[in-house]
Amino acid sequence: MSVATSPINSSRAATGGVTSGEQSAPPRSATKANNREISGVAIELRDLTKAFGRRVVLHGVNLMVEPGQFVVIVGRSGCGKTTLLRLVCGLDQATSGAVWVDGGAVNGIEKSARIMFQDPRLLPWQRVISNVGIARGLNWRAEAMQALEGVGLAERAQDWPYVLSGGQRQRVALARALVSKPKILLLDEPFGALDALTRADMHRQLLDLWRERGFTSILITHDVAEALNLADRVLVLREGSIALDLPIDEPRSRRTEGGEWIARLKDRILTEV
């Protein structure tokens, strides 16, 4: 399987998410939301449990993610965040329960999803364009160049990975994840090792691509500020269960300003973590 990209299935889904004492409104299936084209698909977790031997990492998780939604999962180390992403994209199999993507149960590697990790996992013996077009499909060079243009790195196509900065390597990894135009993008703390300015730039770039392409996205992070900056909805995962399911209704343009409302949201999330 290629590094930093993993496939997912394609069909449809239903039911609701879990909160700490509250039930989310039923999701809507639509091709447009807020005048934005939606190419993403629904993800549903049904009584999802994952155990490694006697250690249960996820406990009967139920969750519905709407097509085109940007969900961020916050939680402490070891709470099951990465395991959940691996189950969604079919890299691991559930002990019980099921993952449904666009109405079809995930069984093996899911073809409509890609995953991006904290480590960009670029092949040092391949140039940037070859790392992006690693699947080597028809017209792969043109598609890889288009993906690099999307992340602002078209001029670095013939460079070797070692000459790039950490942020540039992550942008190459993002281009590689998006080159096949996935319906779902899963992000496993991809910005955790970046400096604050580079991270802010990556946030802007990711949100621009998400708005433009309309894919469904799930990102996991330890950083509550990052979650509030990016998410339509923040989930807190605690000891393998969803402790909080919080919609974020404020426009993203206001979120970096701070203020009392964002302080209240941070406190609420940190209380549940």
Protein traits:
Rossmann fold; 6-stranded mixed sheet; 4-stranded antiparallel sheet; 8 helices; 25% strand; globular; disordered N terminus
Please provide a brief summary of the model.
The protein has 273 residues and is of the alpha/beta class.
Describe the protein's architecture and organization:
The protein is α/β, with parallel strands linked by helices and 273 residues long. The chain is built from eight helices and twelve strands. The chain has helices at 81-88, 128-132, 140-150, 166-178, 196-213, 224-230, 252-255, 260-272; strands spanning 32-33, 36-37, 43-52, 55-65, 70-74, 96-101, 104-105, 113-117, 184-188, 216-221, 233-238, 241-247. The strands form three sheets. Strands 8-9-10-5-11-12 form a six-stranded mixed sheet, sandwiched between helices.
Q: Would you spell out the secondary-structure blueprint of this structure?
A:
Blueprint: E1 32-33, E2 36-37, E3 43-52, E4 55-65, E5 70-74, H1 81-88, E6 96-101, E7 104-105, E8 113-117, H2 128-132, H3 140-150, H4 166-178, E9 184-188, H5 196-213, E10 216-221, H6 224-230, E11 233-238, E12 241-247, H7 252-255, H8 260-272
Parallel strand pairs: 5-10, 5-11, 8-9, 9-10
Antiparallel strand pairs: 1-2, 3-4, 3-6, 6-7, 11-12
Helix pairs in contact: 3-4, 4-5
